[in-house]
Specification:
Blueprint (H helix, E strand, L loop, with lengths): L9 E5 L5 H11 L5 E4 L8 H7 L2 H8 L5 H19 L4 E6 L2 E3 L3 H6 L10 E3 L6 E3 L4 E3 L2 E5 L9 E5 H10 L18 E5 L3 E3 L14 E2 L4 H12 L2 H5 L7 H14 L6 E3 L6 E2 L20
Parallel strand pairs: 1-2, 1-3, 5-10
Antiparallel strand pairs: 3-9, 4-11, 5-9, 6-13, 7-8, 8-10, 12-14
Length: 298
């Protein structure tokens, strides 16, 4: 007697009272995709003591050059809860959405053929946002190309993830020190992206994270950028401020990667918006939420 293969589980992260829930329900329902909601955590509802217990602000400063905002903390905790539920349920793989995702019709091809995704792929972004990808190589899944990421790929609104990757991400977020996308460097994860995007990010919805996320300023003039680039390549920037970086690799990721890869266009594709200039961020004070809630056991 043969048994039908288990369908690929789909999780959707959403705040319990979010008006987005019926919207994403309708979008996935129209494609015939079953899913389970993961209750998201609102960062502004966390007390200062809770934030102190779950965050590592010193490492945030070294990894990102700034502190996390309350909503970024809540988002990272929400993804951590999704990893926990996936691991405890024994799933070997899953798709995780945020509730502002717009799934496309081609997503069905991946959902139906997910066992054909090469085992060498740990994490597959269905929307690549911004970042750097490798032009050559990769894999094909029907009409979809799976390209290797060469940098952190921004946005976690939709991704396929294997159990082994979920375990790594869950372990890396015991203390939150980075945004949900992603808490460690690429050496620890075989990260790919789909071409074309199988999911779009609904930018028409007000961001539940970006409302307190620092923006980006106008880049310096070309001459100043050349000086900054030379200082970075000679590691002057690192030795002037070693405490601003988590490691030499973190320095490479933040200061050198895009400068090097931009000079190799036949090898790398730099996606729009990857290199931006962060605005100075004022010292972050402990947020006080109007409603204090407990954090689930993760």
């Amino acid at each position: 007697m043969t048994h039908a293969a288990k369908p690929l589980p789909v999780f959707v992260i959403s705040l319990p009272d979010s008006p987005r829930r019926p919207v994403i329900s309708g979008r996935l329902g129209a494609l015939g995709i079953d899913f389970t909601f993961i209750d998201g955590i609102h960062g502004h509802a966390l007390s200062p003591d809770m934030i102190a217990n779950v965050c590592d602000p010193e490492r945030s400063l070294r990894r990102m050059g700034r502190l996390l905002t309350p909503n970024e903390i809540g988002c990272a905790l929400s993804h951590r809860e999704a990893y926990r539920q996936m691991i405890e349920s024994g799933h070997e793989a899953a798709i995780i959405f945020e509730d502002d995702a717009i799934p496309g019709a081609q997503l069905l091809e991946l959902v139906r053929q997910w066992r054909s995704i090469p085992a060498s792929i740990d994490l597959l972004s269905l929307f690549k946002g911004s970042g750097i990808i490798i032009r050559q190589g990769g894999f094909s899944l029907g009409s979809v190309r799976l390209a290797r990421a060469a940098s952190t790929i921004e946005y976690a609104c939709g991704y396929f993830i294997r159990r082994t990757a979920a375990m790594k991400l869950h372990a890396a977020t015991r203390k939150i020190s980075s945004v949900a996308d992603w808490p460690f460097d690429l050496r620890e994860l075989r990260h790919f992206v789909t071409e074309p995007d199988l999911v779009r990010h609904d930018f028409s919805l007000p961001s539940e994270i970006g409302v307190d996320r620092p923006g980006f300023s106008t880049p310096p003039p070309p001459f100043a950028r050349k000086i900054l680039g030379l200082k970075a390549l000679l590691f002057i920037t690192y030795f002037q401020n070693p405490d601003k970086y988590d490691s030499l690799y973190n320095y490479y990721e933040r200061e050198l990667r895009v400068r090097i890869m931009a000079r190799l266009p036949w090898r790398y594709e730099i996606l729009p918006g990857y290199y931006r200039w962060p605005e100075p961020v004022a010292k972050q004070s402990a947020p006080v939420g109007t409603e204090v809630r407990t954090i689930p056991n993760m």
